[in-house]
Write a structure and sequence with these properties.
By secondary structure, this protein is of the alpha/beta class. The protein has 8 helices and 11 strands. The protein binds S-adenosylmethionine.
Length: 234
């Protein structure tokens, strides 16, 4: 799959920047940043507050439980990121507000996002963000039909899945083509089962064997077995 742009720059706007550190430093995403295949920038929305208490939330108009994130610091952070990345044309940017919204994240959407040069992810907390912020975004995006405490986990999911769409990130185009949900004419698929050593696993008195064909060295038969065990989803 040929993408228009690489590397992709991710900008994450959050009240909890510490939530991201370890995950983004590990394994594939850590190496992808070292190789400049992706860049991840995290912005603390609280740095864009203007009062001495650094207030980023307030009570909801109309009453009710919880607090609402104020629009001004979120928009000030967004304007700053846009200004600092003005060299990237607006058409190559995607501004996403993480939200338990009807539009759900998927592999197709990850592929579409990977064709942008910059993805800006705004993380909500508390009861969400003042709705007026939506005037400045491209879309609200949910990662599933459940409510998280904040958008940070959702942002990590988006960064991870989109990054995997960049060939330089995985360093192995074949694994990308065979992966579950890879675009296929027959519709989305789930990858065949994988095994590693030992060939016989002794657990609780049971011997669990790797399918013999995978040990045969017969690449044609192995390919057929894998094809047979790749599930096409309805
Ligand atoms: N009061 C909101 C409601 O009932 O729809 C829930 C707000 S939630 C506790 C706080 C933040 O978490 C949201 O603003 C959003 O950024 C994030 N969030 C929660 N669930 C999410 C999901 N399924 N997908 C993406 N982001 C989510």
């Amino acid at each position: 799959m040929k993408l228009k742009h690489s590397p992709i720059r991710f900008d994450i706007l959050t009240l909890f920047p510490e939530a991201f550190g370890d995950y983004f430093r590990q394994s594939i995403l850590g190496k992808a940043q070292e190789r400049n295949a992706i860049a991840i920038h995290i912005w603390n929305i609280r740095d864009y507050t203007t009062d001495k208490h650094r207030t980023a939330d307030d009570v909801p108009y109309g009453g009710g439980a919880g607090m609402v994130m104020k629009a001004e610091p979120v928009l000030a952070a967004l304007q700053d990121v846009l200004k600092k990345t003005a060299r990237i044309p607006r058409a190559d940017k995607k501004i996403i507000l993480l939200s338990p919204a009807p539009k759900e994240f998927s592999q197709e959407r990850a592929i579409r996002y990977a064709n942008h040069r910059q993805i800006i992810l705004i993380c909500g907390r508390y009861e969400g963000i003042d709705e007026r912020v939506t005037k400045f975004i491209d879309e609200k995006l949910s990662i599933g039909r459940y409510v998280l405490s904040g958008g940070e986990l959702a942002a990590m999911v988006v960064v991870d899945a989109v990054s995997r769409m960049i060939p330089a990130v995985l360093g192995n185009a074949t694994s990308l083509a065979e992966e579950s949900y890879a675009p296929a004419q027959s519709g989305p698929t789930l990858e065949y089962p994988q095994y590693t050593r030992p060939a016989v696993l002794n657990v609780s008195g049971k011997k669990l064997r790797v399918p013999a064909i995978l040990l045969s060295g017969d690449h044609k038969k192995i390919a057929e077995w894998r094809q047979k065990h790749t599930k096409t989803l309805k």
